[in-house]
Amino acid sequence: MNMIFRPNQPLALPSDQDATGRTFDEAEIALVAEVLRSGTLTVTKGRFGKSFEAEFAYTLGANHAHFCSSGSAAVHCAIAAINPNPGDEIITTSITDMGALTPILYQGAIPVFADVDPHTGNVTAETIAQRLSPRTKAIIVTHLFGNPCEMTEIHALAQAHHLPIIEDCAQAFLATHANKPVGLWGDLGCFSLQQGKHITTGEGGIVISNNAALARHVYLFINKAWGYGDPNPDHYFIAPNYRGSELQAAVALGQLPKLQGVVQARQKRAAQLTELLTGIDGIETPKIDPRNSPVWWKYPLMVNPNHIEGGAVGLAKMLKEWGIASAPRYIQKPAFRCQIFREQKTFGDSRWPFTLARPEAVDYSAERFSGTFDYLERVLVLPWNERYTEEHVEYIAHAVRECVNTLTKKS
What we know:
The protein folds into two domains: 26-258, Type I PLP-dependent aspartate aminotransferase-like (Major domain) (Aspartate Aminotransferase, domain 2, 3-Layer(aba) Sandwich), CATH 3.40.640.10; 259-331 and 373-407, Aspartate Aminotransferase, domain 1 (Alpha-Beta Complex). Helices cover 34% and strands 13% of the residues. It contains 13 helices and 14 strands. The longest helix has 19 residues, at 259-277.
């Protein structure tokens, strides 16, 4: 196609915040209606939650899957399953959503932030190894934007130190590394069904595992640690109610058969955009390990501020004139710069569990995170969803090229 685009005639892009960028149709409507007609909305009595768990486990190739109320709840359940003692350390990434971090604190453990690859934003075996200590209880990896971490190396590192891995796959449905789905490299895999994810129930989450004991703990943690179906059930340990509802599960069942098509559409259009943007001075398209098959929750560009006036922020501002709502920096600051970590704002004035931490575990000096600061300075996150057409991608590419031409610094 040879389209001519102008910024005063912006092309409306599909949005994952409404029907233009989502895949809802009569399938979800029929399933939700069936739930309502049944009158049973709780997953403890209904069949839709159980059906979604079984179908999701089959889709990923997992032995166990447990549905819960959010992606954050999924991460919390996984952390609870490894059962850290107060003061134990869990290595995680400096670039992630707070919902993947506060569960560590709620379980009395200390988040220890690893630096990231400055080209992908992902933790690596090397950056994780730099944070290991005798107190390390587990490793959490986040597959940022649906581009998998180097799980071969990370898995080998974890095995050598006898450490469990929790995979945060909220942005990485069906992504693979070395032909193996993410979520199965570790001991527990956590997924989010929030509004903008590959499939959605508005809010929701699911945890997969091939470890029966860990999966059992996840199930109990979702259900206030009540042993439904046990000969003599009790509340076995402290745990919340993290159950989803039958209504959410019905939507999830309607969404799940579409997942493969959603992923393929995102991959096809991402490949198209990469081809159109390759070779633009000052712009770096996503770095992909040849062992990876990313699934593109969003599409991250790296912007060279030495070449482009204003860097990622300047480019984002100009793209807004084209109707493209991109996000420079993705998160405005590393997670450890947020007040909860900066001032250790936890339970009352106690600062607990930070009071149990080694000084090095809470050392957030900038020089320890060169990859993090480099990545956040240069990344520009483009919106992405499965409803993008060839025309949409050409429009985005044209806008980026025109804006870069305008912002290129003159020598």
